[in-house]
Amino acid sequence: MINNKVVTVVLPAYNAESTLKKTFDEIPFDIVDHVVLVDDKSTDSTIKIAQELGIKHIISHDKNKGYGGNQKSCYNKALSLGSDIVIMLHPDYQYTPKLLHSMAYLIANGVYSVVFGSRILGKGALKGGMPLYKYISNRFLTFFQNLLMNNHLAEYHTGYRAFSAEVLRSIDYEKCSDNFVFDNQVIAQICDKGYEIAEITCPTKYFPEASSIKIKNSIIYGCGVLKVSVCYFLHKLKLMKYDILK
What we know:
The chain is of the alpha/beta class. Helix content is 40%, strand content 14%. Strand 1 (7-13), helix 1 (20-25) and strand 2 form a beta-alpha-beta unit. Helix 6 packs parallel to helix 9 and helix 8 runs parallel beside helix 9 (215-236). The longest helix has 22 residues, at 215-236.
């Protein structure tokens, strides 16, 4: 706990057998009370390794529900455990667990209610192996999103996110997509509620075992992101009703 706040780390897993232990071993259990792993119908030994590591809260989907569907299960379970702070950490070791302290403390001390680990802050994205096309598309999409959503984030596309339970309860993430665009729809819901998002610099790691969206899916994702931003903008102008916003 931090300041009597229950901290839960959620691991949305899919074929993470080669990186799960490395990720789990770096989780700082001096502040983390619970770890929840949701396996999205992996075809490898992710579940077996999670059990061997002693992860108490394991959910196994009987069919692949997608990245967004996985997160929904993660957050539902975390909230059912009475968590005050919920941090999503990918078990593919692309994001370092060593930042969990910093992210959790910002929320536990009431500084922010949402904290993102940004790969773009600083100069480490390309140095850490981010493909050039991903970096360029990330910059373009983020510029477009900041413009339409009246924000100033360095990156909307990080998978390293910490939330207060209050934030997760105040938005309706169940309305969001089960696919990768879920992350950006959640940001739209957070912004619509008026919550401020803090960002801290996160080292970038790209290696063969780390999960990554293929080019075709990246294009689909990018189009989805643009749609979210436009719909949010028009919703705020009262020119349309965006159904994911309350």
